[in-house]
Design a protein that fits this description.
Largest sheet: 4 strands, mixed
Structural class: alpha+beta
CATH class of one domain: Alpha Beta
CATH architecture of one domain: 3-Layer(aba) Sandwich
CATH superfamily of one domain: VSR Endonuclease
Radius of gyration: 23 Å
Number of helices: 6
Strand order of the largest sheet: 1-2-3-4
Order of helices and strands: HEEEHEHHHH
CATH topology of one domain: Endonuclease, Chain A
Amino acid sequence: MTQAERKLWRSLRNKQLGVKFRRQVPIGRYIVDFVCVNENLIIEIDGGDHFEKENDKIRDKWFHAQGYKVLRFWNNEVLRNIDGVLQRIIEEISPSPLSPPIKGGESIGDESPVPNEEKSAKGKSLIPNEEKSAKGKSPASKRGESV
């Protein structure tokens, strides 16, 4: 491993970012610097010899076809700005909660009993049962008072 790879590995190993990374892993006919199989994420640390290399483009295209996302960092970027590199990796592992909403929501003519109810990716409601049962009731009836 290069000095930059060793520095990054110290931060990736032992699930320090919450996911397991492996180093120097063969994928197809290539060997990647680091991979998180659960996230389909490959991290490559490149020196100056990788500048504008056609082989890297072919390699990355093949990884994308296999379902992997590839993040590439320069050696000097890892050595001089490890916090920025780690932040970029974390962003890829845990997308921002401010990312655009999943398709769905209210549409014209939507007559569902609970409009705009948030759902998880599996279709389950994200609103606690107490809140669901209180929807549509007056503030007094939510507190259990008679109206």
